[in-house]
Amino acid sequence: MADIRLASACVRTADVNPNRQELDNLVTPGDIITSDTGFMRGHGTYMEDDRLHASVAGVVDRVNKLICVRPLKTRYHGEVGDVVVGRIIEVGQRRWKVDTHSKLDSILMLSSVNLPGGELRRRSEEDEKMMRHYLKEGDLISAEVQSLFMDGSLSLHTRSLKYGKLGQGTLVTVSPSLVKRRKTHFHNLPCGATIILGNNGYIWIAPISGEENEDSAGGGYEQNLEPVSRIDREVICRMRNCVLALSQNKMMLFDTSILYTYENSLKFSVSFSFF
Amino acid sequence: MADVLLSDAEKTFILHGIQDNLREDGRGCDDYRHMEIETDVVSNTSGSARLRLANTDVLVGVKAELGVPEPIKPNQGRLEFFVDCSANATPEFEGRGGEVLATEISTILSRAYDNPNALDLKSLSVIPGSQCWILYVDILLLECGGNLFDAASIAVKAALFSTKIPNVSVLKGDEGQMELEISDDPYDVKQLDISSCPCLVTLSKIGYFHVVDASQKEEACCLARVIMGITQTGLVTALKKEGSGSLDPESVFDMMETGKKVGEILGKNLTAVLKEEAALGKKRKLVGFLR
């Protein structure tokens, strides 16, 4: 009921595997990457005394003569085509502002969403007035990165039936660098839950919905608020805890790793929490 | 408080989960999240403790200083609570942003401790009417992950447990005045009896049910909550209702029953853990902040 432990009694990641193999291209701030002056200085590096140092902790990336350090702990750095999960934080002029854990707020234009009713139609003033009816502050969406603006903020789109407003379920946030890039980021796992691994480190776990009647007038903006069955709920709880356990131990997240963790966790009770 | 945005569907999901007695992280309604505690983490205090309750991180330092007792309680020492909301916890605390929350926490803590059956304040008296120990309890919120009240009170109790007050001998001076001699031997100290210190238990009403130790998401779904100060013998030393929502008298009664039950267990478990840590003595490994 109330489990209190001593900080010294808790197992740390470092204790579990002390001689974990060190990556040779892993640097910490101040580390000398090279003393060779023939290289170009990229992001995450600085030059001092004719030597190239790392200014962030991360992995050294070398493209021809350019040396960059890709930080491990970072905000989300968007790329075109990434699947993201985001939360609407503002409704504005023909656009929504979306939090995607990147440095700047991302933007979802009214013209890049699917509206109920028609496939492709002009966005009228009526639509603009109905914006808050479709998506309001706090709503979660899944989307794809359409393009990057000059200042690095993202423009999103939901012009596919797989994207759109998310219903009941739970959101877990992990470091974006832990999400492995795969061909698909939407998974209906056999244990009975659907998971969206956003490239931005937002992970959405939800019950598998029945047959989707996508063509209905709702257009994906109507939510099912019926209670989720206890069995589904247990699966979601367990999955959430598995994802957190993996992220706590800095393991990459993708469908197989999550499924294996889930299967191995079955011998324990659901009730356990890292966070 | 640091509120999070939630969509209606997420709120519904949390609400139905509580009805099923299965919360988002697999807990039941009367369960606390796991806590990690460590005492004596700050060397220049009389006693200190750090508590991590999921994402909530609280550091408490206690400083004992000699001072003048309050005129209405001449033979008692006193506790002074001060809460600092670090802007590291959430940007909302920047500037004066955390002040309201800080006063709320310190007020409810002083109320919970302001009880003759809580901490024995008479033991802090040195010369009745003129000198006593004042314990300045400084609470620093380092990270917010929900349930700050309970976390702060647990850390305070742990810090008081680790507080070491130097022994004072009172000598009669030449002309009848008193002279104090404070021992500077670090082992010539006395410790407080914390067995009757209260812990705060917050019960949040979500839907038709109530939960203890609400996470940040659950706090966003909750309209009314009851904060109780409970000693490990089940004595209620403080009670406060918070939030914009209203509560049915019957549900207040239910919540108090749960609070008492949970508070007793919480207090007992905490004392057991603290004793275990004290028993380790010098073998104890200090974990500290970097890990």
Automatic annotation (TrEMBL), chain A:
Keyword line:
Cytoplasm, Exosome, Nucleus, Phosphoprotein, RNA-binding, rRNA processing
Chain ranges passing through the membrane: none
Residue ranges of domain K Homology in the record: 169-206
Every copy of the RRP4 S1 domain together lies at 75-147
Location within or outside the cell: Cytoplasm; Nucleus, Nucleolus
**Exosome complex component N-terminal domain segment(s):** 26-63
Predominant place of localization = cytoplasm
InterPro entries (alphabetical)? Exosome_cplx_N_dom, Exosome_RNA_bind1/RRP40/RRP4, KH_dom_type_1, KH_dom_type_1_sf, NA-bd_OB-fold, S1_RRP4
Q: Which GO terms describe its cellular component?
A: cytoplasmic exosome (RNase complex); nuclear exosome (RNase complex); nucleolus
Asked if Coiled coil is a keyword of the record, the answer is: no
Does the UniProt entry include the keyword Chaperone? no
Tell me which CDD domains the record gives. Answer: KH-I_Rrp4_eukar (cd22525), S1_Rrp4 (cd05789)
Instruction: Output the superkingdom of the source species.
Output: Eukaryota
- Pfam families assigned: ECR1_N (PF14382), KH_6 (PF15985), S1_RRP4 (PF21266)
Listed SUPFAM superfamilies: Eukaryotic type KH-domain (KH-domain type I), Nucleic acid-binding proteins, Ribosomal L27 protein-like
Q: Which GO terms describe its molecular function?
A: RNA binding
What is an annotated GO biological process for this record, any one? Answer: exonucleolytic trimming to generate mature 3'-end of 5.8S rRNA from tricistronic rRNA transcript (SSU-rRNA, 5.8S rRNA, LSU-rRNA)
Q: Which family does it belong to?
A: Belongs to the RRP4 family.
The subunit field of the Swiss-Prot or TrEMBL record says: Component of the RNA exosome core complex (Exo-9), composed of EXOSC1, EXOSC2, EXOSC3, EXOSC4, EXOSC5, EXOSC6, EXOSC7, EXOSC8 and EXOSC9; within the complex interacts with EXOSC4 and EXOSC7. The catalytically inactive RNA exosome core complex (Exo-9) associates with the catalytic subunit EXOSC10/RRP6. Exo-9 may associate with DIS3 to form the nucleolar exosome complex, or DIS3L to form the cytoplasmic exosome complex. Exo-9 is formed by a hexameric base ring consisting of the heterodimers EXOSC4-EXOSC9, EXOSC5-EXOSC8 and EXOSC6-EXOSC7, and a cap ring consisting of EXOSC1, EXOSC2 and EXOSC3.
**Per its UniProt record, what PANTHER family does this chain match?**
EXOSOME COMPLEX COMPONENT RRP4, PNAS-3 RELATED
Stated name of the protein: Exosome complex component RRP4
Q: Which organism is it from?
A: Acanthosepion pharaonis (Pharaoh cuttlefish)
TrEMBL record, chain B:
Residue intervals of the Exoribonuclease phosphorolytic domain = 32-166, 198-261
Enumerate the Gene Ontology biological process terms: exonucleolytic trimming to generate mature 3'-end of 5.8S rRNA from tricistronic rRNA transcript (SSU-rRNA, 5.8S rRNA, LSU-rRNA); nuclear mRNA surveillance; nuclear polyadenylation-dependent rRNA catabolic process; rRNA catabolic process; TRAMP-dependent tRNA surveillance pathway; U1 snRNA 3'-end processing; U4 snRNA 3'-end processing; U5 snRNA 3'-end processing
Q: Which domain of life is it from?
A: Eukaryota
Q: Where in the cell is it found?
A: Cytoplasm; Nucleus, Nucleolus
Name of the protein this chain belongs to:
Exosome component 7
A Pfam family annotated for this chain is RNase_PH
State the UniProt keywords alphabetically: Acetylation, Cytoplasm, Exosome, Nucleus, RNA-binding, rRNA processing
The UniProt entry lists the main location of this chain as: cytoplasm
Q: Which family does it belong to?
A: Belongs to the RNase PH family.
Q: Which InterPro entries match?
A: ExoRNase_PH_dom1, ExoRNase_PH_dom2, ExoRNase_PH_dom2_sf, Exosome_comp_Rrp42_subfam, PNPase/RNase_PH_dom_sf, Ribosomal_Su5_D2-typ_SF
* Subunit architecture: Component of the RNA exosome core complex (Exo-9), composed of EXOSC1, EXOSC2, EXOSC3, EXOSC4, EXOSC5, EXOSC6, EXOSC7, EXOSC8 and EXOSC9; within the complex interacts with EXOSC2 and EXOSC4. The catalytically inactive RNA exosome core complex (Exo-9) associates with the catalytic subunit EXOSC10/RRP6. Exo-9 may associate with DIS3 to form the nucleolar exosome complex, or DIS3L to form the cytoplasmic exosome complex. Exo-9 is formed by a hexameric base ring consisting of the heterodimers EXOSC4-EXOSC9, EXOSC5-EXOSC8 and EXOSC6-EXOSC7, and a cap ring consisting of EXOSC1, EXOSC2 and EXOSC3.
| GO terms of molecular function | mRNA 3'-UTR AU-rich region binding
Q: Which GO terms describe its cellular component?
A: cytoplasmic exosome (RNase complex); nuclear exosome (RNase complex); nucleolus
